[in-house]
Specification:
By secondary structure, this protein is an all-alpha fold. It has five helices and no strands. It comes from Pseudomonas migulae.
Length: 133
């Protein structure tokens, strides 16, 4: 029972991680310090999709399900939980590359905006400091 609860909790964490990879850059617009968490997460998310890596969270979930007497599943988290809902035909390598590209483009756009905001703040701070002198 405990392993099943842990596996279900891990599924929830996995989903939240994926959402953070996809949309965490939007949080960085407000809280810049989250970039230290989001950049590595987004890098990992892109790498998993582009290089077809197996996420360790999927392996851990399958191990916990086995320990609970349940069967695990083949493939990854997205193939098992997300794609059957969105794309019942299944996940192909080209779709995975597309997903990785979408994550990359969204986050590059967000971070370009973050860096521009920081640069404009620094410029205005410097000009205010020079004026007060």
């Amino acid at each position: 029972m405990l392993y099943r609860i842990a596996a279900d909790g891990l599924v929830l964490f996995h989903l939240l991680f994926i959402l953070f990879v996809l949309f965490g850059g939007l949080l960085v617009l407000k809280w810049h310090h989250l970039a230290w968490w989001h950049l590595p997460a987004a890098t990992w998310g892109v790498a998993v999709e582009v290089f077809h890596l197996t996420c360790p969270l999927t392996q851990w979930e399958n191990l916990m399900r086995s320990a609970a007497g349940q069967t695990g599943y083949g493939g990854g988290f997205i193939e098992h939980y997300v794609w059957p809902v969105i794309y019942p035909a299944g996940l192909t390598p080209s779709i995975q590359l597309g997903l990785g590209g979408v994550v990359l483009v969204i986050n590059v756009l967000v971070y370009v905006r973050v860096f521009r905001q920081r640069k404009s703040r620094r410029t205005s701070t410097l000009s205010n400091t020079t004026r007060s002198l």
